[in-house]
Amino acid sequence: MTTRSVRIPDDIDERLVALAKSEHTSVNSILVQAAEELLARRAQEAAISAATEEVFARREGLFRRLADT
């Protein structure tokens, strides 16, 4: 496991501490969860983008005809 030092603005840190307290967990857990969610969202966005590009590549002629109408 890696230990990383992160600079967080005071106002965000205060909100993180309050959130962690309300969820009976640690700020570290909140930050790990947020990182996991961000990584999952970006991976999903990349997959959607790749799938969209594939559809446009496979159906290029169809989309061109639709654009001409």
Blueprint of the fold:
Layout: H1 10-22, H2 27-58, H3 60-68
Helix pairs in contact: 1-2
Tags for this entry?
elongated; mainly alpha; 69 residues; 78% helix; 3 helices
Account of the protein in words:
The chain has helices at 10-22, 27-58, 60-68. The protein has 69 residues and is mostly helical. The protein has one domain (10-68). The longest helix has 32 residues, at 27-58. The radius of gyration is 21 Å and the shape is elongated. The model has no long low-confidence stretch (mean pLDDT 94).
Concise summary:
This protein is an all-alpha fold. The chain has one domain (10-68). It has helices at 10-22, 27-58, 60-68.
Query: Could you give the count of β-strands?
Result: 0
Main sheet specs: none
Q: First CA to last CA: what distance?
A: 57 Å
| Rg estimate, integer Å | 21 Å
Order of helices and strands: HHH
Estimate percent helicity: over 70%
Beta-strand percentage?
A: under 5%
Low-confidence stretches: none
Q: How would you state the average pLDDT, rounded?
A: 94
Number of separate helices: 3
Structural class comes to: mainly alpha
Which term fits the overall shape? elongated
The structural domain count equals 1
Pfam families: Arc
InterPro entries: Arc_DNA-bd_dom, Arc_rbn_hlx_hlx, Ribbon_hlx_hlx
Protein name: Arc-like DNA binding domain-containing protein
Organism: Actinomadura keratinilytica
